[in-house]
Amino acid sequence: MRTAVALSLAARRPRLDDRPLDKRIGLVILATDHTTEVDFQRMVASDRIGVYVTRIPYANPVTPENLRAMQPSLTEAAALILPDETLDVVMYSCTSASVVIGDSEVAAAIKAAKPEAAVVTPTAASVQGLRALSANRISVLTPYTIETSRPMADYFAERGFAIDGFTCLGLTDDREMARISPKEIVAFAKEAAAPASDALFISCTAVRAAGVIAEIEQAIGKPVVSSNYATAWACLRLCGDREARPQLGRLMELPLEEERP
């Protein structure tokens, strides 16, 4: 006959930290996204900053209509990230949808669930990054069709950037966009960067550009900003992380515009 194991209750409750980690970043990413979570774990997550992820329904192909269809799900998706707990930053990880829906509309939808959080979109973060790099003239590389890219061209032009070149790769499925190899990204970036431009912007959170930013910068001799790279930079700075990471590219050495003395 087996002897019963005696269980005892500790004499006191454990002391609890205010939070498991000092800062919290929430990511709202597409159901089909292969890239954002990996990039943020590599560039952002640490023993001080936690990255917490939820996914939002999305159906290919990448068209303005399908992108806009995500808007009604944004609040519910944000609410699923550590329910009833506060976040420091929430990032919505879709560049083309941020253009179609609108940065302010995305922010309002997320703040309906997480009112205390700063909201980051790839488009707004990229504009901040390009301005921090003092870029006025830009070249743009997107994986999208011309139809999906056109609103993005308007977005950057409306914010005062002169666009010297705008290259579209013509893909319609974000899962294929994630399968563009880093080597191919570098090759297309070299072709897309116009000599007159101050910087190159590579769009789409599915594209694995963040890991080759420094390589592209060395090849073209000018700064490069990509969607996940810009949002990682913005999220780090909003969490008070001012560490320079030159190995990741030039932008990672700079503060957010509002942080500048």
Automatic annotation (TrEMBL):
Residue ranges the record marks as coiled coil: none
Record carries keyword Plastid: no
Keyword Metal-binding (UniProt): no
Organism classification: Bacteria, Pseudomonadati, Pseudomonadota, Alphaproteobacteria, Hyphomicrobiales
Keywords, in A-Z order: Plasmid
Species assigned in the record: Sinorhizobium kummerowiae
NCBIfam families assigned to the protein according to its UniProt record, in alphabetical order: ectoine_eutA
Protein name, UniProt field: Ectoine utilization protein EutA
Gene (name only): eutA
Superkingdom in the source lineage: Bacteria
InterPro entries to which the protein is assigned, alphabetical: Ectoine_EutA, Iso_Racemase_Enz_sf, MaiA/AMDase
